[in-house]
Amino acid sequence: MMPSILVTGANRGLGLEFVRQYAADGWQVHACCRDPEASTDLSEIAAGSDGRVTLHALSIGEAGSIARLARELNGAPIDILLNNAGTYGLKGFAEGGMEAQAFGGMDYEGWEHAFAINTMAPLRLIEALIGNVAASEQKKIFTISSSMGSIAAPPGGHLAYGSTKAAVNFVMSTLAMDLRGRGITVMSLHPGWVQTDMGGSMAPVSPQASIAGLKKVMAGASLATSGHFIGWDGNRVPW
Length: 239
Ligand code: NDP
Prior knowledge:
This protein is α/β, with parallel strands linked by helices. It is 38% helix and 14% strand. It has helices at 13-24, 40-47, 63-73, 108-134, 159-178, 207-220; strands spanning 4-8, 28-33, 53-57, 80-83, 140-144, 185-190, 229-231. Strands 3-2-1-4-5-6-7 form a seven-stranded parallel β-sheet, sandwiched between helices. Strand 6 (185-190), helix 6 and strand 7 form a beta-alpha-beta unit.
């Protein structure tokens, strides 16, 4: 049987490219996003997939929506659980949202929102679907984090976004320890600065290159490297 992956934020950006590349490899893909029908790109990939790409409505910030998804999946094994959905804040990076999270201008409501989506939602999804991952062959869990969450080498500014990614790195590194006994590999990943709605058009990396690199990292991940924070180029990112 082909392996399976569940991707959040599958309707655009990096999530959509993950779906495209894993579907092309013949994987079974559970593509999750708030409004699956609204993304024509995603619908087209699903339509041409011989039923291997299935669409699921998921509002990642809502506990009830995550519980509904878990019921819908009904114990199906998931080889890779991939937390990709994320937000820069209520005002996006590419829309000049930096000022709303620079010292002196913090939008606290936006910070809370980013924390709910970038930090708490990934853990909630992992808690809800841990049985599906444990029932699979590969047993891997990844979260798309960011080097902007590095405490060792902070970029300056980006206080809300960076702190939510630093916090989710803590969650992932802790889960690597807590889930090791169940044979589950856990990792935070950095995709590079990529041309998406979030990254903007100035970004140097294409979604195709970023995801091709991340797929190699994900394929190579094992209990031996569980708990590492790794970039799309295969190198470790400083915490
Ligand atoms: P995009 O802004 O292009 O896409 C974000 C995705 O997350 C969309 O699918 C969006 O769904 C979903 N999402 C955002 N907020 C919510 C929410 N409240 N509920 C449900 N889904 C939500 O971003 P990217 O594709 O660039 O980013 C993907 C991941 O990569 C994120 O975690 C991001 O932080 C990370 N990243 C990106 C970098 C880059 O340069 N692009 C650099 C480092 C990390 P919807 O369409 O419904 O809003």
